[in-house]
Amino acid sequence: MLMLLTPFLLLVSAFFIVRGGWACRSYWLAWAGLAATMIGDYFLAVKSSPLVSSGFLCGVAGFSLAHLCWIGFLLQHARWSPRIAFGLAFSLGIFFAARMFPALESPRLLAALSVYTFISIISVSLACGTHRLSSAWRYGLSLLLFSDAMIAFGRILRVPYLKHLIGISYIASLVCVTVAI
After folding, report:
1. Cα–Cα distance, 34 to 73 (Å, whole number)
2. Element (H or E) spanning 148, and its range?
3. Has this prediction a pTM greater than 0.85?
4. Spatial CB neighbours of 97, under 8 Å, sequence gap ≥ 6
5. Distances in Å between the alpha carbon of 10 and those of 61, 129, 148, 160, 174?
6. First to last CA, the chain
7. pLDDT exceeding 70 applies to what percent of the chain?
């Protein structure tokens, strides 16, 4: 279902970007971010790549590319929220130091997840910053970060019963990003 949902959301958002004409041209970068999530979806959801595999790293790279596209878009329209950025960096830094570093055996995976988390903090702090864009950006990227945290708890720290919460929050994040575009 996920591999059908994202192309549908891409078609819907492309329709509205085209309909908006010249004024909406910067939204293609945001659209490219939504498209990049399909790379992550393929490796993490469709192939179910194991945690310590190149497939998992490719999935993380796909979502990193999505966030970089969204950062590029948001930098044109928003100012970041330093309070959100520092709050997330502080809390996620403690989480990484206390739980993730000891649980991850692969230095490559630890480095990739650290970089991805840093990129996510930047995108969320921009989405929650000052701008005239849809508030769906705040909800969409915050839900994506929440989904990522649930993946960390479920797949890395082996907390049971999070699979449905991950799926629901991830799909909600995609829908919110589409509404924002």
Report:
1. 12
2. helix 136-151
3. yes
4. none
5. 20, 25, 21, 32, 10
6. 22
7. 99
